[in-house]
Write a structure and sequence with these properties.
Bound molecules: nickel (II) ion
CATH topology: Peptide Deformylase
Number of strands: 8
CATH class: Alpha Beta
Order of helices and strands: HEEEEEEEHEH
Structural class: alpha+beta
Radius of gyration: 15 Å
Number of domains: 1
Length: 179
């Protein structure tokens, strides 16, 4: 088990546009994914993008397959490895919702996101992923894939009156981790 250091906002490596993965089912890719899963679990994250641990490729993982103390009210999202993703909004509806990010520890903000999306990409073996989702699942995918374009959620916010410290905004939330 290798928990990697998560880069924090302000690190220029979080602002890069990541290149596509070109080789699937390699030892290096599987090792990277194992490290990312360990790192996400250790931080109680709902998702993690490779650039957040300083690896500049189009790879994200996400999922809330057990109750997550950081998102106790969130619906379950299947654990997913998503490579070279493409997102298409299915209609014009935008939803506001609270987000946090392991690269912006201790804070939450309300972010407008597409309510319904189709996303496509590949898993670590090169098999196609093609899903149509809404709600929290759609939000998590948009948040994680933004990391591949050098975007952190505060850069998507429109109302900074709804941005602050988790311990102040949600005093009842599990404080056992730093986000
Ligand atoms: Ni994030």
């Amino acid at each position: 088990m290798t928990v990697r250091e998560i880069l924090k906002m302000g690190d220029p490596r979080l602002l890069r546009v990541a290149p596509a993965v070109t080789e699937f089912d390699t030892d290096a890719l599987h090792l990277l994914i194992t490290d990312m899963l360990d790192t996400m679990r250790a931080a109680n994250g709902a998702g993690l993008a490779a650039p957040q641990i300083g690896v500049d490729v189009q790879l994200v993982i996400f999922g809330t397959d057990s109750l997550n103390p950081r998102y106790p009210d969130a619906p379950l999202v299947p654990r997913t490895v998503l490579i070279n993703p493409e997102i298409t909004a299915l209609d014009a509806e935008i939803e506001n919702g609270w987000e946090g990010c392991l690269s912006v520890p201790g804070m939450r903000g309300v972010v407008p996101r597409h309510a319904r999306i189709r996303y496509t990409g590949f898993d670590q073996y090169g098999d196609v992923i093609d899903r149509t989702v809404d709600g929290f699942h759609a939000r998590v995918v948009q948040h994680e894939c933004d990391h591949l374009m050098g975007k952190l959620y505060p850069m998507r916010m429109t109302d900074f009156t709804q941005f602050g410290f988790t311990e102040v905004l949600f005093p009842g939330l599990d404080a056992s981790d730093d986000d």
